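Appendix B. Raw example, untouched.
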Amino acid sequence: MKKILHLIAALFAVSLSISAQTLNPPSLGEARGFAVLGTTAVNSTGSSVVYGDLGTSPGNLVTGFTTGIVVGDIERGTTAAAKAKTDVVRVYNELGQFTSTQDLTGQTLGGGFTASDAAVRGTTLNRGVYNYNGNARISGRLKFDGQNNPNSIFIIQVNGDLVIDPGSAINVFNASVNNIFFRVTGNITVGTGGVVGAPSNLSGNFVVQNNALLSLGTSLVGRVLSAAGDIALNNNNISLPEPVTTGTGDNNGGDEGDDDGDGNDDGGDGDDGTPGNNPPVNATLRISKSANGTNFIIGENVMYTIQVTNTGPGDATNVTVEDKLPAGLSLLPPTEASQGTYNATTGVWAIGSLNANQTATLRITAKTTVLGLITNTAVIGGGDESDDATICVRPELPNVVGAREVCTNGSVTYAVSNVSFGVTSLAIVVPPTSGLVIESQSLSAFTIKAGATTLPGTYSITVVAVALGNCQNSVAFPVELIVRAAPATPVITTPQVTGLCSALTYQYSIAQPEEGVVYTWSVTGTGWERTSAATGTQVQVKAGTGPGRVTVVATNACGTATASTQDVVPNPAPITPVIINNSGPCTGLAYSISNPVAGLVYTWTAPAGFTFADNSTTATGTSVTLKSSDLNAVGTLAVSASNASTCSSGLASAEVRASDAGTEIVVPTVFSPNSDGINDALVIRNLLNFPDNDLTIYNRWGNEIYKTKGYKNNWMASGLEEATYFYVLRVRGCDGKDQVFRGPVQVVR
């Protein structure tokens, strides 16, 4: 590990010295080999994996790495950690001294998580120094683009807290992760907002003054270094960035020093100056190996890229690389080689000749077949130059099936399938203080009991497949469990009325209905009846004539509550009123109630074509007067009685004829008494409204042929021939005065 880090440091320094930019980032010094460095403590939850050194200074508390793994050294308050901390503080201060080239205050980096072109593209930053005067947020995709300059420098100065939403990604193009720095004066938090539960995939060196918190599943290629705070991990995967180039250059013909003392590199093997066998002494070979990811689910494919570069000055011949896949990887042909051939059986890539400044590339695809850390090493023929790539193979997401609900003091059993070979146990996490207890478990099933203290509600449970010594466990399978109790005694909400009235319908309901509870209603009592469905949170009830009772019973899968009852007593309805017709020419269309009852309200409704005296169509009182503009209008007047409890009587009605109040006397000039039922009698309009009258009929010679008092519109000229006759009509009016009408009337048979 130390040898590799010295090599990385040397190459990193070279890459910075040849940068095309005027920016030169501070050297990490002794901190370069640390992927994680805290002050008092570094705490890890779950199975975090750190590829690089991890340490604390001056504190010495490191927890959580009985299940987690550090592929490097753990330095708890050691001299190495102290030196590294000194350099972290220096780097933190130096990063704050750069002059900003762009102010990003108030801006969010990334396009968020709502589907759109902007979200897909994210936010792109080119090389430079960026400043936030306050808190900063990354939400979605942030891209650093070196614009074809691999030595581009990126510095983000945050004078506040840095928050990174779950599900965010930091991608690097045409640049080195080693040259990306976040300098944060406050805290770094990965895990608020965004897509809850989604891991973030980040790149860069995070140098923070205070604390850093990485959310569940976050992956980081880079470093998280705190000047004065602590670091909390949660099932994270952190790896040091790849250097600009890799390899030592000691491949037999490489140089271990100046062999002949002339100050030049002669390419000897460092022992006796004798040239190496392969490649030639004047050729230097570098090898790099990388995978297309760090975390894979078992059964997924991983692609390795191996590159061999001849940095010269001379050409190399007969170049070979041994890259035999280790256990846990199954080769998937075809392989892709830019030159030469790869033998899948021996694992040897025969490149052949490789000219100075030429690079050969091999891509190998393999299927992951076992769980855990798998390191794949590529070695240049001769064995002195090599590079490796380590991946983490995680179990598949288990599938959990079981009942969605359980009663208090009850148990539910879940069946588990899709458990990867090599999984040793299931990590089942229930909410703390929930009262939920794991009664039993195996790889294929587990049982959870809801205790007596478990409150009704919805609980989130996670199930993770765990492999012994595994670098990371499976993704958590979410289980939602609803705990129910036997229903409480329901409370009936009664109708909001001052009293119940017989024969009317009322609604009763449950004051606070519970989800999943069935409410069953029943009604008893003389004349009482249910007019709606028997089950539901409410019921329609028709009131009877005597006392009754409304009852409801609450039931769910966990039991039945005590029945709730409501005693009901109806108020008697008033007797249906009787209408008296007082209409006449002197009184108008007048109507009243026969024997009205004190305390009752009589409500009248006018028929169509009629209105009351105030032009309304409804009126109250014991008597009313109607009017109509149509003298021939006929309709039905209605009235009902109600009491203080708003109970109403039956509806009484009476026929209304506008002619009953007619005052104009109109004598026809002709009628036809031929017994056809039409116009057979001498009918004088409105005469019946004036019973005090005399009618005398004369023939053309003046002889009296008919005479009567109180004429009833019934003279049919019996025994008389067709002719013209003459009438004299006396009518006593409403004012007590007589009015006489004279004229001819013709009889037509």
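End of appendix B.
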